[in-house]
Amino acid sequence: MAFFKALIPGVFLTFVISIILGTNHTSGGWLNVHRITIEGISFHWSWPLFLIATGLAWGIFAMME
Q1: How many distinct helices (H) and strands (E) make up the chain?
Q2: Closest CA to 49 of 37, 40, 36
Q3: Cα 34 to chain centroid, rounded
Q4: What's the pLDDT tens digit per position in 21-32?
Q5: 49 burial via Cβ count (<10 Å: 0-12, 13-18, 19+)
Q6: In this structure, are residues 42 and 51 in contact, taking their beta carbons and an 8 Å threshold?
Q7: What is the phi/psi pair of residue 24, to 5°?
Q8: Do 33 and 46 form a contact (C-beta atoms < 8 A)?
Q9: pTM reported for the whole predicted model
């Protein structure tokens, strides 16, 4: 259950950091921030950052249970 709770802060943290890095026209190095388009909606995203943020939130939520 902790994993599913961790998805929300993982997505939020990734979205905010990717927007900040993407609007400054940087790829973030190994974070690989890129522009993604889903059904006509375009935004900045980073899969490595999403995995790190979700893993961190998962660990925190797992310790709280």
Answers
A1: 2, 2
A2: 36
A3: 12
A4: 999 999 888 899
A5: buried
A6: no
A7: -90, 10
A8: yes
A9: 0.89
Other beta carbons within 10 Å of 41: 7
Burial of 52 (0-12, 13-18, 19+ CB in 10 A): middle
DSSP-based three-state secondary structure for 41:
strand
Which residues are registered as beta bridge partners of 45? Answer: 34
Burial call 7-34: b when 16+ CB within 10 Å, e when fewer: eebbeebbbebbeebbeeeeebeebebe
DSSP three-state, residue 43: strand
> What backbone phi and psi angles, to 5 degrees, belong to 16?
-65, -50
| The token pair that represents 53 in the structure block | 């943020």
Query: In residues, how long is the chain?
Result: 65
